[in-house]
Structures are given as structure tokens and as C-alpha cells.
Specification:
The chain is mainly alpha-helical. It has one domain: Tetracycline Repressor, domain 2. It is 70% helix and 0% strand. It contains 9 helices and no strands.
Length: 185
């Protein structure tokens, strides 16, 4: 069984049962592996499993983006489309995502939460064609992390909005960002 298949099995269970060590063990048992292998597959425990899942979602978003002609779009439209692709990838597992976000919000999981958010922001910017290597590399990612956090909070509300409503919310957040100044001649 591939790591991606195992992660999908864990996520499916986590959506129903929550993110626990027992969920990791049950997912392994479902796949015909011994529950005692949970610590081998996920040495950092549940937070590590969530980290691996988010990395898988990043890879799926990048693969979906590679199949599209994003170069024809302006940068804000590329960012919007990439966030949309992430939401589409996460839609079937919204309950698992809600639980993952809640677990990563605990103080001792902050390093994992920041790593996941930073990796996702970088994946989006690289897929959008960003080649910056100066201070803007950091500011773009920090800004995108804030926008993504707001979009996820909106999308994970108790009365979940549709994808169109979420994208409208995203459009409003993107329109509020400062515009870059033209370079001096």
C-alpha cells in the first residue's frame, strides 16, 4: 500500500472518528496491516499524519494546476484558481479538515501548523510561477497564509458555504490586498 493510500484511509476515518492514535491504528487494520505499525508510518503521531496529508493535498493541487494553462492568467487569478483547486481537493474531507485544523490549533501543535501553512503558501506561489528571491518572497507567503487562513475559517463554518460563496469571499480578501507599486525607472 502506498503512503497516499494509507493517508486517504486515515483521512476517511478521521472525518468520522476524529484525529486520534486509534484512528491511525484502525486505518492500518482496514488496510490489512498491523496496528502496531502506526508509529512506524507516523513517527510524529497524529500531527505528523495531518502534516503528511496536507503535503499530499499540496501535491494534488500542483498536479491539477500543471494540467491547466495558468500562464494565461494574471497572478491574482492564478492564486485564486490554485486556492480553488485546494478547496476542491479538500471538499470530500471537509469534516476531517475541520478536525485537523482544530487539532493543529492546540499550542503544542503550532510548529506543525506553521509548517503546513508555510508549505501550502509556497506550493501555491511556486505553482503560480513566483520566482522572487528577495524580501517579497517572505511577504507574499505571509500574506497568502493569512488569506488562506481566513478562507478556511469561512469555508469550515458550521453552516458550510458553497464553493461559489467561498470563492466570492476569497475574491473580497484578494481585492483588499495592497497593490504593488510600479518600479521606479
Amino acid at each position: 500500500m502506498s503512503e497516499a493510500d494509507l493517508l486517504r484511509a486515515v483521512v476517511a476515518r478521521a472525518g468520522r472518528e476524529g484525529w486520534t492514535t486509534a484512528t491511525l491504528r484502525h486505518a492500518l487494520e482496514d488496510r490489512g496491516e498491523g496496528a502496531e505499525l502506526a508509529s512506524s508510518h507516523f513517527p510524529r503521531g497524529v500531527a505528523g499524519a495531518i502534516d503528511s496529508w496536507f503535503a499530499l493535498v499540496d501535491a494534488e493541487m500542483e498536479a491539477a494546476a500543471a494540467a491547466e494553462d495558468l500562464a494565461a492568467l494574471r497572478t491574482p487569478a492564478r492564486i485564486r484558481r490554485l486556492i480553488e483547486l485546494r478547496l476542491i481537493a479538500l471538499e470530500p474531507d471537509r469534516e476531517a479538515l475541520r478536525g485537523a485544523v482544530a487539532l493543529l490549533a492546540l499550542p503544542w501543535n503550532l510548529p506543525t501548523a506553521l509548517r503546513c501553512a508555510a508549505r501550502s503558501a509556497s506550493a501555491i506561489w511556486y505553482a503560480a510561477g513566483d520566482e522572487s528571491a528577495d524580501f517579497s518572497w517572505y511577504t507574499r507567503r505571509a500574506t497568502l497564509m493569512a488569506v488562506q487562513g481566513a478562507v478556511l475559517a469561512f469555508w469550515l463554518r458550521p453552516n458550510p458555504p458553497t464553493l461559489e460563496e467561498t470563492l466570492s469571499f476569497l475574491d473580497r480578501r484578494l481585492s483588499e490586498l495592497p497593490k504593488p507599486h510600479p518600479k521606479a525607472a
